[in-house]
Each structure stands twice: as structure tokens, then as C-alpha cells.
Amino acid sequence: MPVIVNVDVMLARRKMSSGELAQRIGISPANLSILKTGKAKAIRLSTLDSLCRELDCQPGDLLEYVSE
């Protein structure tokens, strides 16, 4: 998939666990895992907003486009 999700990079930079982030943004750890592994087909803007708020970053820090 040409869109790469860099949530794990931001988690490492913020020294935060996946479980803690999932709890803070109100999604299940399983859904966060699907997002982190790039298996998600879509992301709600409200989820992206919550991720950016909790990780103190911009959407471009989390999503990256790489041409195939």
C-alpha cells in the first residue's frame, strides 16, 4: 500500500505504549494495531484528530505517501 502509517514512530518518540494511546483516544487496542500495521482501509478524521492531539503532531507526521 502506498500510504504508510507511522503511528509506531510517534509512539516511540513520545515514549508511550499502544495500550495507553488506545485508551486515551477511545479505540480498542486491536483497532489501533490494525492502523499501525497498515491493514486499515480507512481512518476517520475524528480518529486522526485524536491521534494528533494525544501525540502532539501533525497528520503528515503520521501518514506518508510512497509511490510504488
What's the main sheet like? Answer: 2 strands, antiparallel
**Radius of gyration, Cα only, in angstroms?**
11 Å
Helix content: 55-70%
Strand content: 5-15%
Q: Helix/strand/pairing class, anyone?
A: mainly alpha
Globally, the shape reads globular
Record the strand order, biggest sheet.
Answer: 1-2
Q: Number of helical segments?
A: 5
Work out the number of β strands.
2
Low-confidence stretches: none
| Overall pLDDT confidence | 94
SSE topology string: EHHHHHE
- Distance between the amino and carboxyl termini: 8 Å
What report would you give on this structure?
The model has no long low-confidence stretch (mean pLDDT 94). 57% of the residues lie in helices and 9% in strands. The protein starts with a strand and ends with a strand. It has five helices and two strands; from the N terminus they run E-H-H-H-H-H-E. The chain has 68 residues and is mainly alpha-helical. The longest helix has 11 residues, at 45-55. The chain has helices at 7-14, 18-25, 29-36, 45-55, 59-62; strands spanning 3-5, 63-65.
